[in-house]
Every structure is written in C-alpha cells, then in structure tokens.
Amino acid sequence: DQLFHQDILRSFIKSLGYDAQPMNEAEALAYSELLEDGLTGISMSCGAGMMNVAVLSAGDPVVQFSTAKSGDWIDKQASLATNMTHSIVQQEKESPEFDLLNPDPTNQIHQAISVYYGNLIVYTLEQIAYDLAKSPSLPKFKDPIPLVIGGGTSLPTGFIGKFEQALEAVNMPVAIGEVRHAADPLNAVSNGLTLAASME
C-alpha cells in the first residue's frame, strides 16, 4: 500500500529533523534530466511494477499518472509464452546479448521478450496520448518538448529505438521534439530527488 509506506517513511524522516515531501518518480526524473530544458517536457520512469509519467511545464507537474504494466508484466507474459520460469526470463532480458531491435531469431525467450516489450511500449504510449488528450490542465506548448526515459525496464539495448518507432504511429496531443534516455537510468530518480530537495 503506497499511502501506508509513504506515511511511515515521512514519519521516520521527520523524526530525524527533516521535512519530508513525497514526489512522483517521473517528476523526480524530470529534475534529473530536464533542467536544461527549463523543467519542461514529459518524463517516464519505467519501474518493475508500473510506468510513472509526468508532464511538466516550467517545473509545474501539470499531468501525472501511472500505468499498471511494466517490467514484471513482461517477465510474466514471456514466461507463460515460453514455459520458462520468471527468473530465467528476467536473466535473458537483462543479458547484454539481448537487443530489442534485433532479437536473436533462434532464441525463443528473446523473441517473446521483444514481443511483450513492443506491446508494453505501444500500450504506454496510447495511455500517455489518452491521458494528455483528456487533461484540462495540459498547456499549449509553443515548441516540441523532450521526452526523457529512465528506470530499469528501459535498460535493454534498443529500448529507445523501439520506443521511437512506436511513437511514430501514435497521435500525440503534444509535439515531441526528441526522445532521450537518462544519463544514468537506474539512479536518475534518486538523483532528481536530491536535486529537488536542494532547490527547496
């Protein structure tokens, strides 16, 4: 339960003499990766359990939401499709030989992982387009905005390329200027939290 854990952590940090304020993962990612863009753009934190998305305009998080599919879902679906254990699928997914854009045609697990990654990316992009289109608080951006991505689920070779391919087929309500990977995808959220705290 997110609310329970948030409250427990807030109480603990407060007991140490600090003022703890919760921040969405995607907003924290923006602080790490969108400072040079005036904290304006879309940030997407790809975790194991969910995708967290935020749209920021000059540092103001105008739209934030999460989707329930992410890395664990890929592992589960590929495991069912190949009749392999989750741990074997995860090991293959994290292998340096795995390339999302060019999966080994002789490796059934790589093929399955690639299929479900593709499905996840399309699903996430469609959710982003849907949520942005229905949001009354979405500003009219003068110029195309960047989309930055971080988190462990974004680590496989070819992820950004596959994401860009899928993005071309989705009708986004905002113009995307570039898609870029966080400089340090695994630590970008914690880096962003540190930066945000230092700016308070």
UniProtKB/TrEMBL annotation:
Return the InterPro entries for the record: ATPase_NBD, Volactin
Family matches, as Pfam families: Volactin (PF25216)
> Which SUPFAM superfamilies does the entry mention?
Actin-like ATPase domain (SSF53067)
Stated name of the protein: Uncharacterized protein
Natural source organism: marine sediment metagenome
